[in-house]
Design goal:
Oligomer: single chain
Subunit structure: Homodimer.
Keywords: Cytoplasm, Methyltransferase, S-adenosyl-L-methionine, Transferase, tRNA processing
Strand order of the largest sheet: 3-2-1-6-4-7-5
Helix content: 40-55%
Order of helices and strands: HHEHEHHEHEEHEHEHHHHH
GO molecular function, one term: methyltransferase activity
Largest sheet: 7 strands, parallel
Radius of gyration: 20 Å
Pfam families: SpoU_methylase (PF00588)
Organism: Paraburkholderia podalyriae
Number of strands: 7
Shape: elongated
Distance between the termini: 71 Å
Strand content: 5-15%
Structural class: alpha/beta
Length: 276
């Protein structure tokens, strides 16, 4: 079995920034074997950063089954970063994509893995990005999905669409590698992917993109303001915040834009407090 690492690949060297600024996040993985296999899947595609959110088995990186399934990717497994929450896993991330088992009516923009990879290629050049995968049994919660900038869905055989977690990681890692090494900058022809890539290219050179935790604070602030305005009824919120998240996710928020929205929310709260 060939476990050699082809670090002499000049294309990899040119785009090393993209490979190192990309993290793969597994939320509450149940099986140590899947964690090891995910580490192997990453390494075969030139990635190395694996983050685990509350894995069911403590100290999973030293579990014999995980080590066996890593099959030579011991370095990736040993350097796994374990955190208690998805918010912690996303620290410093400015763009993220969630893998979901099915397409959802609401939530962030939805792309094929190839279109998502085209967008990720540009976003990874301008800062930290994350790919987020759910638990083997329950997948990702709506709250976890809405924390991400976009979602993707692997269009598997509808009669048997049950992809193993590590296999799903492999599919996305492959698509990312293909996009990262596509030095002529072409995309798969998906308008959404091309548009977001162009938008991110100009935004990345122009301004600093907002980090995940800053965006979450903005939504909390905005929600408080909309409740104070009585525009949002907390007892019957419907899908208002989900739709607003989707709107903002499409735009790719810069730090300065987040500050503007928070400034608006702050003044709404000041005015409503005064008149109340």
């Amino acid at each position: 079995m060939d476990h050699t690492h082809h670090s002499s690949d000049p294309a990899v060297a040119n785009l090393r920034g993209g490979f190192t600024s990309t993290r793969f996040v597994l939320v509450e993985p149940s099986h140590p074997g899947n964690v090891g296999a995910a580490a192997r899947a990453l390494k075969t595609m030139g990635f190395s950063r694996l983050v685990l959110v509350s894995p069911r088995v403590q100290n999973v990186q030293n579990d014999p089954e995980a080590i066996a399934m890593a099959s030579g990717a011991d370095d990736v497994l040993a350097s796994v970063h374990v955190v208690p929450s998805l918010a912690d896993a996303m620290t410093g991330v400015h763009w993220s994509i969630a893998l979901t088992a099915r397409l959802r009516e609401y939530g962030p923009p939805q792309w094929t893995p190839r279109a998502a990879a085209a967008a990720a290629r540009t976003q990874a050049m301008h800062g930290e990005i994350a790919l987020v995968f759910g638990n083997e049994r329950t997948g990702l919660s709506n709250e976890d999905v809405e924390r991400c900038s976009a979602i993707t869905h692997i269009p598997a055989n509808p009669a048997y669409s049950s992809l193993n977690l590590a296999q799903a990681v492999q599919v996305l890692a492959y698509e990312l590698r293909t996009a990262y090494l596509d030095l002529d900058g072409s995309t798969d022809g998906t308008p959404a992917a091309g548009a977001v890539a162009a938008q991110a290219e100009s935004a990345g050179t122009r301004a600093q993109m907002a980090a995940s935790d800053e965006i979450e604070s903005m939504f909390a602030h905005l929600e408080s303001a909309l409740v104070a305005l009585e525009f949002l009824d907390p007892t019957n919120p419907k899908k208002l915040m989900s739709r607003l998240r989707r709107l903002f996710a499409r735009s790719g928020l810069e730090r300065e834009e987040v500050n503007i929205v928070r400034g608006i929310a702050k003044h709404i709260l000041l005015k409503t407090k005064r008149s109340g």
